[in-house]
Design brief:
The protein has 406 residues and is α+β, with helices and mostly antiparallel strands. The chain has three domains: 115 residues, Orthogonal Bundle (Butyryl-Coa Dehydrogenase, subunit A, domain 1), CATH 1.10.540; 127 residues, Butyryl-CoA Dehydrogenase, subunit A, domain 2 (Beta Barrel), CATH 2.40.110; 153 residues, Butyryl-CoA Dehydrogenase, subunit A, domain 3 (Up-down Bundle). It contains 14 helices and nine strands. Strand 2 and strand 3 form a beta hairpin. The two termini are 38 Å apart. 50% of the residues are buried. Its cofactor is FAD.
Length: 406
């Protein structure tokens, strides 16, 4: 698949890998995640200022590089290799496309250039605790149930003159929500039953906003609880624009498919790096007077992992060019990362289970991503349902039961 990459893409990969090798090795992770931001601010400003990473897929009109999703996915594959703690995913992959799709000209002009140069980070705050559901990856998000459905729970928006709103409610497991300079908050407006979900812009220093960093399985993915109490907010985009595009659920689903393709590439980077580190270890570690990697059983296990990783990489590269296949590519990449990182711990032997070795961080990244963006079987189930593979309204599970299978 490398032969299909452009010269520009190869240069992005080479430059980014060189920089991350020097400044973002495994030893740098504890210091980075221990900061108030949850990442290394100096390295982030270097990635943004020198390489233009957050603006890679934004148009030149807003200070971006004008590249495609494929280039951003390739960059995220490299950040996944080193488990880089950074606001890139929350800002450039989740928030920026929504601002570009729904924002008014004034909102885009005010926000996107600051995102492109790295001076503004953003986070997507979605009630219900399930990012995958809200993005339409594991189920239909059009009913708004994930956002409170206009009933109790979720986040509610109350109207004011001039289009301003006041938000009430909370959102859990908000990626980089504790440090983002801007929050994109999904809230229900209009009451029940005619209410609908809209996205609102909330500055990080808005009154009535409380953000609490949570303890996460994967410390390189900081999560936060966001509470809003009479918090002023600005609707993202004009109401007629949002409705013409299918509303916030449709925009979230479109952004979700693109994000899935990018996340798949990142997960491939994580799996590939774990595999490479394991190969190097078994070549050097000796047992019974010979390298562990020389045993046939170990060779077979590594060969199986290599096939998994390369298959997931092919799927991720295809999805980067055709985001419609993003959820399926993400399912394959998450599964590959989970199995590969688990085997990496096993093949490292006793040292793989210790805090001193980095193997556990790769396993936690794979497990954490499966919790945040999966699980894998639901990604596949919903993708099959959207494709109509099992008939109208029938899921693979229902089809299996109808065929007498369990």
């Amino acid at each position: 698949m490398d032969a299909a990459l452009t010269a520009e893409a190869h240069e992005i990969r080479r430059t980014l890998r060189d920089l991350l090798t020097r400044h973002a090795g495994p030893g740098a992770i504890p210091a980075a995640v221990g900061t108030a931001e949850g990442y290394d601010p100096a390295l982030w400003h270097r990635l943004a200022g020198d390489l233009g990473l957050p603006g890679l897929a934004l148009t030149e009109e807003y200070g971006g590089a004008g590249c495609t999703v494929a280039e951003l996915a390739l960059a995220c594959e490299e950040t996944g290799r080193v488990l880089l703690p950074s606001p890139l995913l929350a800002t450039a992959v989740l928030a920026a496309p929504l601002i570009a799709a729904l924002g008014t000209p004034d909102q885009r002009a005010a926000l996107l250039p600051r995102i492109a140069d790295g001076t503004l980070t953003a986070a997507l705050a979605l009630p219900g605790g399930s990012l995958a559901t809200a993005l339409g990856l594991t189920g239909d998000n059009r009913d708004g149930a994930w956002a409170g459905g206009g009933r109790a729970g979720g986040i509610q928006a109350r109207g004011e003159g001039g289009g301003a709103r006041r938000l009430y409610g909370e959102a859990d497991r908000v990626l980089d929500g504790h440090s983002a300079g801007l929050l994109l908050v999904a809230a229900r407006t209009g009451g029940y039953p005619r209410g609908r979900t809209r996205l609102f812009l909330v500055p990080g220093d808005a009154p009535g906003l409380t953000r609490t960093r949570l303890t996460a399985l994967d410390e390189t993915r900081p999560l936060a609880r966001v509470e809003l109490r009479d918090t002023p907010a600005e609707p993202l985009g004009a109401e007629d624009t949002a409705e013409r595009l299918g509303g916030a659920p449709a925009a979230l689903a479109a952004a979700g498919r693109t994000a899935a393709a990018i996340l798949a590439a990142e997960a491939v980077g994580t799996a590939a790096s774990a595999l490479e580190r394991t190969v190097e270890y078994v070549k050097a570690r000796e047992q019974f007077g010979r390298p562990v990697g020389s045993f046939q059983a170990v060779k077979h296990r590594l060969a199986d992992l290599y096939v998994r990783v390369e298959a997931a990489r092919s799927a991720a590269y295809h999805a980067a060019r055709d985001p419609e296949s993003g959820p399926l590519a993400l399912a394959q990449a998450l599964e590959s990362a989970r199995i590969t990182t688990g085997e990496a711990v096993q093949l490292h032997g006793g040292i793989g289970f210790t805090w001193e070795h980095e193997a556990h961080r790769y396993l936690k990244r794979a497990a954490g991503d499966d919790l945040l963006f999966g699980p894998v079987h639901r990604l596949r189930d919903h993708a099959a349902e959207r494709a109509g593979l099992f008939g109208p309204g029938r899921t693979p599970l229902a089809a299996a039961r109808g065929a007498g299978l369990r």
